[in-house]
Amino acid sequence: MDKVKPRRRGRPPGSTTKPRDLPAGVWVQVLITRIKGRRRTGKTPSVRQACQEIADNGGILSAVGGNLDALVAANAERKKSWQRFQLNSDRPGLCPSAAGSVFVSHTISNAGTLHARYSQANRLVTSDRRVRFAWMNIARQMLGLPPKRQVPPFMGRSRAGLV
């Protein structure tokens, strides 16, 4: 008798593309939001609260950089075009505009999605010290602090001085 193969649910793998540095960007932005919240109130907000604050402020946008004319030409040829934004003149941030000069390839504006992406990135951070060290340095630089230097591993005491 033939086995019944269960139907795979959800979107096929590889059907959506997201920037490779998206986990780092989400993790760093949530960390910075939590640090700034602690500076304001003295109490560190939870990850959920930080994700909600980021979503309330417009979310995370992955901008595409380069020559504006080349980006316009490439955007016209793409099957799924990039969103266009322009800088707000009255407040910080971006607003959607058909003639904007900022091209965005990926947006995350839902707090639940941000929290899910943060959880994925946090698994990377907790499993590899080097990833944590690099991403913490990115966050430190974005806060205007100097990056930390990596301490070489301790290999034990040298026997040369004991003879």
What is the number of E strands? 4
Tell me the strand percentage band.
Answer: 5-15%
Strands ordered across the widest β-sheet = 1-4-2-3
Q: What general outline do the C-alpha atoms trace?
A: extended
Largest sheet: 4 strands, antiparallel
Mean pLDDT: 86
What is the string of SSEs from the N terminus onward? HHEHEEEHH
Low-pLDDT residue spans: none
| Rg measurement, Å | 22 Å
Distance between the termini: 76 Å
Number of helices: 5
Proportion of residues in helical segments: 40-55%
Structural class: alpha+beta
Describe this structure in words.
The chain is an alpha+beta fold. Among the domains are: 19-58 and 109-114 and 129-144, no CATH class; 60-108, no CATH class. 44% of the residues lie in helices and 12% in strands. The protein has five helices and four strands; from the N terminus they run ααβαβββαα. The protein has helices at residues 22-41, 47-56, 68-77, 111-127, 129-142, and strands spanning 60-64, 83-87, 94-96, 102-108. A four-stranded antiparallel sheet has the order 1-4-2-3. A hairpin with a 6-residue loop joins strand 2 and strand 3 (94-96). Helix 1 crosses helix 4, helix 1 (22-41) packs across helix 5 (129-142) and helix 2 packs across helix 4. The radius of gyration is 22 Å and the shape is extended. The mean pLDDT is 86.
Present the secondary structure layout.
Blueprint: H1 22-41, H2 47-56, E1 60-64, H3 68-77, E2 83-87, E3 94-96, E4 102-108, H4 111-127, H5 129-142
Antiparallel strand pairs: 1-4, 2-3, 2-4
Helix pairs in contact: 1-2, 1-4, 1-5, 2-4, 4-5
